[in-house]
Amino acid sequence: MPHTDDRATLEPIATIRPDGSGRLDPTSEAAAGAPLMLMERLAGRMRRALCAAGLAGWGIYYRHNAISALNMERLLGLDRKVKQLSAPSQQEQPHLLLDPRLTDFKSRVWPTGIYWLKTRQVVVGYWLGPLDKGTPADLQLLAAPRPGAIVDLIRAYDEASQRPTIRRWQIVGNRLDDDAPIDTSFGWDRVIADPQLRQRIEEEAIGFFRDDVRAIHDQLKVPYRRGILLHGPPGCGKTTLIRLIAAQVPIKCVLVLRPPPRFDDEDFSSLVRRWGRHAPAMLVIEDIDTLFSSTCLTPSYFLNRLDGVDSRATGGLLLIATTNHPERLDPALNNRPGRFDTVLAVPGPTYDLRLAYWDRHLADIATDIRRDLAARTDGLSFAHLDEIMRLSGMIAARGLHPARTPTDIRLAVDIVTEGHEEATQGFKALDPNGFGFAVAQRTCGGSAPGQLTPWSGATSNSEKTHKPGGCQA
C-alpha cells in the first residue's frame, strides 16, 4: 500500500549482534506494536541472513509510527535484481488473507521472507506475526549500508504508487489489508436503487469530479472538496453505493480507513495529507459513529482537521462516511457545512425494489410467486435477500434439485425471516441441556427416558426434536 506516512521514520536496531543474538531495548519503538521477543527473533534472523550474504556491516532499521507495512509485491517490483536470502519455514508459509468486508476482492498470497534488492542496496524482511490480541499482522524490517538507501527506496515506492495506472482501493490502518484494483465495470446495471437516490448520487458524488464542476470551483476560488454522509440500516446498500461511485469517477485511488485501536490524531493527520497528495481522490470512513469509541482519535481534532482541508483543497477531494446510527453522531459532525455537505438516507428496500431484486435473480420463477416473495420479505434488507438466495440454493442442492423450487425459496424466506425477528426481538433462551442435544421425554425408537439424543434444529413454525424411529416430541 502506498503510504510513506509523514510521521514514519527509520529507527536503527543496533543491539542485535552479528551472530544474531542480543536484545532490543524494551522502550524502543521497534518493539511497539509487536511482541518484544518476536521482534528480537526476527531481527536475529535478519542479521544472520545479512552475515551469510556478506553484508554484516549493514544496519537494520524499523519504520516506526507507520500505519502499516509497505506492499511487498510493489516493493520488490522496484528492482530488477532481487535475491531471496531466506525463505519462511514450514510454520511460516504464507496464508490467504481476506477481509470479510471486501468479499468481492480476491485473497492474496503474501511473499514472506528476506529479500535483497541488489540495485537499490536494500534488504527487506517481511513476516506475518501476532498483533493486537493474536490478530495476524505484517512485520517488516529493512537493512542497508546507509539509511539514505532506504529513504531513496521509499521515495521511489511512493512515486510508483501515485502513478495513474490501475485505479485501486487503498486500505489504511488495517495491517491485514493492502490494496486491490477497483472494478471499473461496476455500474448501475448491477445495482438496485431508488430512482431519487440514484439521481442524488449521480449529482452529488459522481458528478463532483466532472471537468466543468472543477472549472467552476477554480473560477469561484472555492475549495474543491465535498463531504457526503450515507446513513441507513445495515445491509441496505451503503457499501455497494461506495463501490459504484469509486468505479464511475475518474480518480487515482480510494482510501478506505480501517483504523486499529491505537489509531490517533497524528495518524489521522497523516491520512489527510496523503488524501490531499493523491487528489483527485476519495476517502471512505465506514461506521463513523464508532470511530472515536474504538480508536484513540479525538473528535475535536478530527473536526478541526477536516475544516483545515478546505483551505487547500484544489485537486478534488471527496469524503464519504457511512453510519447505521445517525442519531449517535455529534451535531457538530453532521450539521455543519463543510464537513458533510450532503446527507443521504439509504433505507431498506421498498416493495418495488424487492420485486426488482426477485425479478433479476429469479427470472425463471412465475411472476405471481415473485410478487408473493416481495410481499413476504417486507422489512428485510438487501443483505437478507442475498442470504435467502444463498440458503435456498443450499436447500435445493440438499434435495438434489437442478434449480431452486418455490418450496426451496419459501423455506429459505421462513428461516431468514424468523432469524431476523429473533435478532430484532431478542434470541430465545439457550437449551439447558447444551448445544446440539435434547432430553427424550419418552421412549421412542429404542431411546430410554432421559437419554440424550441429537437435536435436529427448528422448523419455521415450531421446534421439533427428532427421535430415532421417526417419532416427534
Mind explaining what this structure looks like?
This protein has 473 residues and is α/β, with parallel strands linked by helices. The protein is 33% helix and 18% strand. It contains 13 helices and 17 strands. The strands form 4 sheets. A 7-stranded mixed β-sheet has the order 10-9-12-13-14-11-15, with helices on both faces. A 6-stranded antiparallel β-sheet has the order 1-2-8-7-6-3, with helices on both faces. The protein has a two-stranded antiparallel sheet with strand order 4-5. The chain starts with 8 loop residues before the first strand and ends in a 19-residue tail after the last strand.
Short summary:
By secondary structure, the chain is of the alpha/beta class.
For the sheet with most strands, the description reads:
7 strands, mixed
Overall, the morphology is globular
User: What's the tally of helices?
Assistant: 13
Mean of pLDDT = 76
| Number of DSSP E strands | 17
Structural class: alpha/beta
Measured as a percent range, the helix fraction is 25-40%
What's the CATH class of the largest domain, please? Answer: Alpha Beta
Architecture of the largest domain, according to CATH? 3-Layer(aba) Sandwich
| CATH topology (fold) name of the largest domain | Rossmann fold
Q: What count of domains describes the coordinates?
A: 4
Identify the strand order in the major beta sheet: 10-9-12-13-14-11-15
- Rg result: 27 Å
Order of helices and strands: EHEHEEEEEEHEEHHEHEHEHEHEHHHHEE
- Note the gap between the termini: 58 Å
Which blocks of ≥5 consecutive residues have pLDDT under 50?
1-7, 14-33, 90-110, 131-135, 433-473
The CATH superfamily of the largest domain is: P-loop containing nucleotide triphosphate hydrolases
Fraction of residues in β-strands: 15-25%
